[in-house]
Amino acid sequence: MSTRNQNDRAAWLQGAGAECSTPLQKQGRAWRLILIGAPGVGKGTQAAMLSEHLRACHLSTGDLFRSAMSNNTNQTLAMLAALDFMRRGDLVPDDIAWGMVRERIDCLRCRVGFILDGFPRTLAQADSLKRLMERELLPLDAALNYVVPLEETVARLSGRRVCESCKTVFHLTARPPMHAGMCDHCRSRLCQREDDRPESIAVRLEAYDRSTAPLIQFYENLGALATIDATGSPAEIFSRTMIALQGRRINDESRGTTARIAEATAGS
User: Fold this and answer.
1) Active-site residue among 43, 66, 156, 167?
2) What is the distance between the alpha carbons of residues 46 and 43, in angstroms, rounded to a whole number?
3) 243 in a structural domain
4) Cβ distance 37 to 145 under 8 Å?
5) Which of the following is catalytic: 102, 130, 175, 193?
6) 175 is a catalytic site residue
7) Which of 99, 113, 117, 177 is a plausible cystine mate for 56, CB 3.0–4.6 Å?
8) In the predicted model, what is the mean pLDDT of residues 55-76?
9) Do 92 and 82 touch, CB atoms closer than 8 A?
């Protein structure tokens, strides 16, 4: 994927006061999407592909946390509180994670739209985000739920490698780099995230089932859920995603037309 079309996400990664030096340009509809799925399902890869295709900004809370740990971000009160938990190896509580996102409200307001990857993770976070978007008059287009069998999830996680600099994701078998241990784009070193090590995978999946899976019902009740089969190549998964989004756009336009007809009929 060409990096020249990617926002540097400075406002997202660095926090209050930062501005993106390479902002995306709005092209057509501004999409606002939430990505849901267990660790290793491929949300980050799909988010990057959606960002380039839809021209919406990829907002990853995972990248935000990792940037904070690398001291590449402004140390706001919410960020400092989150770092205390992360350094102890504990999960960041709902209210602190929400505080970090809320501090970056301008990213949610961005006129090109957003693809929120890694947030919300709990019902409390989802409800807070829903109320904020309603206050800001920001309609949610879809919550994309990526699903994959457990055994494939484990294989994906244990083989994943991430670029230390540009965060591009590779896989030892499914998407290997051209040169072992080196990013194809910026030539930086590839590393295995601590939470992708085999001993951490079972813990992550258990935590997901316990706290994040209920989001599926939450967004289904809102009529925003679209479930995507995440098996196969990234291109195949992306194709299914775009078909689902196209279907939602057609349905939205149909509902809008029906509503306008009903208003006109009532006024006649």
Assistant:
1) 43
2) 5
3) no
4) yes
5) 193
6) no
7) 113
8) 79
9) yes
113 domain residue, yes or no: yes
Average pLDDT across the chain, whole number: 83
CATH code of 220's domain: 3.40.50.300
The CB-side HSE value for 257 (13 A sphere, CA atoms) comes to 6
Is residue 160 part of the annotated active site? The answer reads: yes
Does residue 202 lie within any of the structural domains?
Answer: no
Cα separation, 137 vs 106, whole angstroms: 13
The residue written with tokens 């140390």 in the block is 75
Phi, psi of 244 (to 5 degrees): -65, -40
| Phi/psi at 235 (5° precision) | -65, -40
For the entire predicted model, the pTM comes to 0.76
Annotation marks residue 43 as catalytic: yes
Q: What is the DSSP letter of 116?
A: E
- Burial of residue 125 (number of CB atoms within 10 Å: 0-12, 13-18, 19+): buried
Q: Write down the catalytic residue from 175, 204, 248, 249.
A: 204
The two tokens of residue 47 are 């988010």
Q: What are 20's two structure tokens?
A: 């993106």
pLDDT tens for each residue of 109-161: 988 999 999 899 889 999 999 999 999 999 999 999 999 888 788 877 888 89
State the total domains in the chain.
1
Tell me whether residue 9 is one of the annotated catalytic residues: no
Quote the tokens at residue 201: 């995978």
The catalytically annotated residue of 104, 121, 161, 167 is 121
Q: Which of 9, 32, 160, 167 is catalytic?
A: 160
User: CB neighbours (10 Å) of residue 54?
Assistant: 22
Residue at 246 is within a domain = no
